[in-house]
Amino acid sequence: METPPGGKTRMLSVEEALERILALVQSLPVEHVSLLDALERTLGENICANEDIPPFPNSAMDGYAVRAADIISASRAQPARLRVIGQAAAGQTPTAVVEPGTALRIMTGAPMPTGADAVVRFEDTSESLFSPMAPGDDRRRQEIEVYAPVARGDNVRAAGEDIRAGETVLTAGSTLRPPEIGVLASLGRARVAVHRRPRVAVLATGDELLEIEEPLRPGKIRNSNEYSTSALVLRYGGIPVRLGIARDTVEDLTNKLRAAVDQAVDLILTSAGVSVGDYDVVKTVLGQMGQMNFWQVRMKPGKPLAVGVIAGIPLVGLPGNPVSAMVSFEQFVRPALRKMEGRRGWRKQTVWAIAEEDLENSSGRRHYMRAIVTERDGRYWAKTTGDQGSGILTSMVSANALLVVPEDVRFVPKGDSVLAQMLD
User: Fold this and answer.
1) Residue 60 and residue 153: Cα distance in Å, rounded?
2) Phi-psi bin for 131: left (phi > 0), alpha (psi -120 to 50), beta?
3) Residues with Cβ < 8 Å from 231, sequence gap 6 or more?
4) How many other β-carbons are positioned within 10 Å of the β-carbon of residue 308?
């Protein structure tokens, strides 16, 4: 614990604790992976286009490629009549030249023929009046009536309309979502450089824990923290390396932590054994194996936190209560993972919501209340999920947000605004 003169333990602010944790981690190196394996990863290079996208002018819809000047006065009363000189589908390169008084039937995505500068859609031609062509019926191939004018460039996708050759399309630090994957595919990038996903050792501690397949016994509980923590690691881009349960002995905990070091993980997460009154074995082993600090953070739930380094690997010791562990993960571990993944930012989305009930905070700590935020009539509304005890894991199941009540606020009356940190 950090103990200032006078002997009383000083509680860190959430911001100070986070700053210290982020100082322990760095962005991981990049690796080249196949395009789909890069989804939701962080780009590790700038992407410049070697070619225009689209690479050629093409039709934006099904219709007829025409010279706009030929149909400038076209109307239903006085249609323009054009001779049809051929047809082009996507993937075909038309060889016919559109000269005055002619048109070429064209499908969406087909290259524009020489001489044409616009496309008139089928709906504005006599094609819309024809029944499906019977065998031998070639009227549409001979002549077409056009009922509406178009301007030059109408319904045509110009070469380079989306991307110009030489343009920087994506920058390092971008998150590769499906749209970015599509852009990379259009540029012919089968592999791409992304930051390596952090490998995170997950270890639960305590003699009271059972494996989840085991039947309950008196005084025992199942090991839920290992799974919820591993799921959070997965959700935020990491690779969990599950180490199971460490019993409350120096030998077992030491062996488990050595296993984490041997597997060359990038971060170690433990749960339980870091609060005042916990068995000294966890603090003892962590202190013997590395440089550790045991903090109290001015937050509720999640006051106890252990942070340090073992064999060069950052370690965060989360509280043992399930909700405390998850809330602490969201505030501290998630930002650390985002930094390791090369992300530009790590802040959760927040909204201001109207409290639908009185909110009390007598702890003197920043209170993260599990809540449901909904949108009605253009405003956000928030209601807690019920019992806010740190052992009520179902309060997280029901929640889509954490209401953040500041340290110096003791009471938020119904109808006042409160900051909501969105979980989903």
Assistant:
1) 10
2) beta
3) none
4) 19
Mean pLDDT value across the chain: 92
Instruction: Round to whole Å and give the CA distance between 14 and 188.
Output: 45
DSSP state of 331: I
Of 193 and 207, more confident: 193
Q: Shortest CA distance to 334 belongs to which of 235, 247, 206, 186?
A: 235
What is d(CA 307, CA 23) in angstroms, rounded to the nearest whole number? 11
H-run or E-run covering 395: helix 394-397
Concatenate the DSSP letters of all residues of 173-242 into one string.
T-B--HHHHHHHHHTT-SEEEEEPPPEEEEEEE-TTEE-TTSPP-TT-EE-HHHHHHHHHHHHTT-EEEE
Instruction: Using only the alpha carbons of the chain, give its radius of gyration.
Output: 32
Tell me the pairing of strands 267-271 and 199-205.
Answer: parallel
Ramachandran category for residue 205: left, alpha or beta (phi over 0 → left; psi -120 to 50 → alpha):
beta
| Contact call for residues 114 and 60 (beta carbons, < 8 A) | no
Give me the mean pLDDT over the 382-411 stretch.
95
Do 412 and 352 form a contact (C-beta atoms < 8 A)? no
Q: Report DSSP letters for 21-59, one per residue.
A: HHTT--PPPEEEEETGGGTTPBB-S-EE-SS-BSSS-EE
pLDDT digits (tens, 9 = 90+) for 122-173: 999 998 776 455 444 555 558 999 999 999 999 999 999 999 999 999 999 9
Q: Which distant-in-sequence residues (6+ apart) come within 8 Å of 334 by Cβ? A: 232, 236, 346, 348
Instruction: Find the DSSP H helices in 37-147.
Output: 139-142
Q: For 111, which DSSP code?
A: B
365 vs 361: CA distance, rounded Å: 8
Question: Residue 59 in contact with residue 156, Cβ under 8 Å?
Answer: yes
Q: What residues pair up with 347 in beta bridges, in sequence order?
A: none
Nearest to 270 by CA among 304, 299, 238: 304
Environment class of residue 409 by beta-carbon count within 10 Å: exposed (0-12), middle (13-18) or buried (19+)?
A: middle
Separation in Å, CA 163 to CA 51, 152, 184: 8, 21, 11
Distances (CA, A) of 386 to 301, 320, 370, 373, 398: 15, 21, 8, 14, 9
Task: Please give the model's pTM, rounded to 2 decimal places.
Answer: 0.86
The predicted structure's pLDDT at residue 8:
55
Rounded Cα–Cα distance for residues 239 and 232 (Å): 10
pLDDT value of position 268: 97
Cite the DSSP H helix spans in 290-372.
322-328, 334-340
DSSP 401-419: EEEEE-TT--EE-TTSEEE
